[in-house]
């Protein structure tokens, strides 16, 4: 198996099949890709748009081609010399009746062979949040009925479109006294969970009799009007129905984040690991898969043990990457046997090059003057408080109960209220996603982190001492197992709580500079600088040279080129704030007065203008009605999601329809062709940002393709990607147009048209990937050296070298150049760079600019006017 020099992420489903992917192989090979990086391909719930709701991990999704289709794609990739990286999901499966494991648990409860496969608290019946009101109200209103499920071979409780299998032990309750059904009753009475396949086969045989089935259904129809009988029958099941609105407080299975339709797997169990990885391991053993991307590693009980077991199963030469969000200077645990992360921290590192630090602060002050919160940490604290008190209140309460039970067993005298407050404050002040304690206790790094959190939390000293004992495992021998349960529950809660608080709440409440509201990034970062960028890259080269370097994914809040454009607003804070005020006044007639305030609010308006600016196609003109309509449709979906994720005046469980309708109406009015005065003003104001943002796009592209790490290209992002958050970022690219563009001879020249349509970016991608393939070791294990930039424009360029033996690549990119570009063309005039040079490594011979075929003679420094003579970026190679 080969180490990728690049990956290309494809989102299967939504029309993308194995057959269609196989047809793209020649294009990917020409582009320079070495490995296709596939979204989950295993059988998922019907109609799944993403594949993370798996129902069978040992079956490939039929809708995208099944096993035969997969073999077709695999063979086509191998014939072209390309590899394959698969995205797998060990943390959860769909809590769906289409999932045979989950269905078994629903039917048989704790007796099911799969009862311990899922992370369920079996101290009570399995909770199913499938109704919109209390069960007695639902029965009273006739929302439930008994039915025959011939296909499944069982009797079922039909509620809200779900045919929930009755536990066979309860069949007697509905068949009693009916001589016609004695055979069915007897079959059910002899049924055991361990023999469930045989039971269902016998039932299907009996129900094949049409007459018997009709008679049985008539009998069940008669019983379905008896509310008392249905209530009694409900109480005899292995499951209990609860209102979906109460799931946050009543659910008794671990879910993925807040999604009740995804149930946590106990993959730490050897049997669960084996049964959920059988096909994956077979595909690796047969050489059809070269690498794995592990989804949501933080959800697992013991990530280290899982990764060790997986690494032992797949061998040392298979690429192993984890989806892990690193906060600040956090690093992956060094003992993890992985090649790195999927690269969100790389996005955060890039922002150091393109965010003007003083301008960002000025933007924050302007945002605060218009009603926003300047301090992002306060916004995050409020979001975390909401998550603790509402969205994750069930998980938090369970943690309280366990801590208090252990305190009583340990004879700890700390007041229960202090223990609860200490746990709450620890979760509130936790600065990263989680710690990685094991059954044996905490790592030294986790202890150091927790001590800092203890100090910041301000919690009662005795309560902190007690909680620390649980986390460290310093308890009586008889309590060690329950202390380990507390430790892993705390860790498994901290991650989702941070994710939902930060990524899916605070990022939608704090709209100061949307470009830094990105997965893996920190809007509260204290400084943005090239020095910080270089430190990150030097560490990456030494520790994680095979981590992915990504700029767009299926989970990013916006496409890489939208982000590159929005960075430029940090360079024009005052002008942007003035423009927002002007546009707000122009569009004031479209604002609606509601009882709970104006809609949209001032901070909503600030956010909307940025969102429009980031997504605005470079070629869209203010008089293009069809183009404006298409943009508006995309932004309407984004706006609805943003308002609900912010969880302020609307949310997913309590939709404020009047507020959402008013904001959407405002957006539609903004982008109406009749609003030409605003559109013309907006268009003219945006033009310099479009051009300088495109330069940022080229700069971040050459950095990604040459810096330490494996560059990952999200589908279509080899051209421009101005997408919004999902589902917008999961639209299929125009591959015919991309192939046509790539097929043109040579690299598009130094022209505004080439820059703005994305062809120049695509050409740069192809040339840099070719360089990486030709010189694998240089970019795989080569050193990283920050190169000084000296002269009056030194703050407006970044440079570094990659070195391996006698080979060297020198990369130079502009930064913070908004407002300095000429009226046409894409390069700053030579006079601008006068006196500014990059100091080159000692002993270099002649260099060739691989982007424009120019030769650079040996020298100790390179003038930027020379480096940027043809293109606004430079990649030089010498051997």
From TrEMBL:
One of the GO biological process terms: alpha-glucan catabolic process
Pfam families reported in the protein's UniProt record: Alpha-amylase
InterPro entries, sorted: GH, GH13_cat_dom, Trehalose_TreY
Superkingdom of the source species: Bacteria
GO MF annotations in UniProt: (1,4)-alpha-D-glucan 1-alpha-D-glucosylmutase activity
CDD domains membership: AmyAc_MTSase
Residue stretches making up the Glycosyl hydrolase family 13 catalytic domain: 6-474
Name of the protein: Malto-oligosyltrehalose synthase
Biological source species: Metarhizobium album
Taxonomic lineage from the root: Bacteria, Pseudomonadati, Pseudomonadota, Alphaproteobacteria, Hyphomicrobiales
